[in-house]
Specification:
The structure holds two protein chains of two kinds. By secondary structure, chain A is an alpha+beta fold. Helix content of chain A is 50%, strand content 13%. In chain B, α2 packs across α6. Classes of the chains: A alpha+beta, B alpha/beta.
Chain lengths: 429, 254
Amino acid sequence: MVSPFPHFSRALFFPQISQNLAIIYNLLHVITVTTYGFICSVPCLLCVAASYGLTDEQKEFQKVAFDFAANEMAPHMAEWDQKEIFPVETMRKAAELGFGGIYVQPDVGGSGLSRLDTSIIFEALSTGCVSTTAYISIHNMCAWMIDTFGNTEQREKFCPDLCTMEKFASYCLTEPGSGSDAASLLTTAQRKGDHYILNGSKAFISGGGDTDVYVVMCRTGGKGAKGISCLVVEKGTPGLSFGKKEKKVGWNSQPTRAVIFEDCAVPVTNRLGEEGQGFNIAMKGLNGGRINIASCSLGAAHASVELARDHLLVRKQFGETLSNNQFLQFKLAEMATRLVASRLMVREAATALQEGRRDAVSLCSMAKLFATDECFNICNQALQMHGGYGYLKDYAVQQFVRDIRVHQILEGTNEVMRMIISRNLLTES
Amino acid sequence: MSGRVLVGVKRVIDYAVKIRVKPDNSGVVTDGVKHSMNPFCEIAVEEAVKLKEKKLIKEVVAVSCGPQQAQETIRTALAMGADRGIHVQVTGKDYETLGPLQVSKILAALAKKEDAQLIILGKQAIDDDCNQTGQMTAALLDWPQGTFASEVSMEGDKLKVVREIDGGLEMIKINTPAVVSADLRLNTPRYATLPNIMKAKKKKIANVNPADLGVDLTSRVEILRVDEPPQRQAGVKVETVDDLVGKLKDTGRI
């Protein structure tokens, strides 16, 4: 399996990593401050290993993603969070490997893989940095929307640069006045000749201000979902401006800003699909987006279970290691069980979406609801198991907790997920 | 000159795994343990692919000896850019006792069969740390060897190799065909890209039996016992240099 840069060779250059290797090879139990960011590139815990049931090819994809996460992301995860750095170069390196448009078609530069392949990849990348992986998944969602609903000119104009991450994308649906009630959005797009004039503002836009391509849902028609269209707005268009960078609890390696339109003229040729099709396009994008976000939660939970396990084996109280404490053993078992259950749901949803199954939308909502809730609890439990150390920013587990907390809120709150599922149950004939 | 490079890739226990000795001290636990390509072999593959990209050689053939799982390691080499693979099937007891001598016999036979111009290997495997296969292969073929290579360049039909030695760096010029063994600083192996992983599926891996190559796999080495390294004992703090010298004399160190 590919290991891009012999890790143990880095031990010669980076003392903190050789410290970890000394632990591994000398089989000593050393009570040390776990080096933040050295997440094992090969999660070795048997029952929660993420590679069971995958094809050989999927295992290869996963290994590349794990290696990239361990080498290129994990060592910087803390710094990116603390300094709020948008890691453009690292993401472009990821794009070189094909991670810029994983489920975009190859003729415009995408990798043409399945939703399940994508879920596996994001789950693995997330072990290196949840926030950055989550942004990459949003970028992928936008690239897919243009790829799927764009005409030839739009696909050829936007997709290649998005797939290489020469350009970055943002998804603009939420507004100050419309979050869960997305169809009530107020940003208008008035047709004037061969342009739409946009007025309004979007809130909480991931990447906003730093990205180049904005996929914007706006009102071209009457009230409700049927009056909404999808426009691609490029940075630098007169009338497009941004709010201040928000200060967040997590997801700090991606900037979040309001996106403001003031008489912003966008060519009609930038409209994806037909007028009135925008809401549909947005929701279809979100089905995949929900699987991706849930996959990011899986990666964080897996990393946290490993960190908790390692801590239990090392930390001693009352004369023995914490791993001898039955409560903690049982707690760890529950965490592992819920992780595997979440993973199965997410992967099944990915398969259903790929196959266009009738239950795909519900399953995506169920998987997002279940996995994001369970995985947050897992990460939170892992933090608790670390005791006081878990609360220190020197330890990675708190960043996993902070970063995945928002997964229960965005891409459709978990309450909205319940709305979708109950509607499916109660209106079926 | 065929322009063909043979690269040996070995499937070893992943570097990050906590090694455990079997209860009967006959070896280490390998069942259910994560394996991957030997890191020095990755460097070897990377160097071969680089030479091909510079158009100095025409074809990279990845070779691995072992059971069915060795094919995974070959696939990784293919995903990195090797053109085709050869899986030399060695299983069971033969695989347990497979060592540098047998592997070098196999590689020598394959080099002749494939009319290879160059063999690039990792300098050693991280499981046995033998550092013998490259040297033995060269000897069996009566080819020059450039071991511990930190830089390789082709000048016509000669090879310039910069070797990492105890005293520093040594530069040698050797004729081809030759054997090179890759050291740490030779290059930084590339990640396989998603498209290359998919392309690798279509590349061919040939299956070969050691018997067909006329190689005798009998081992001349018998492993008697495998133990964990001794636990580190606590040290002793001394106050003065005289105390230190005294203690060193006591323990017979000086």
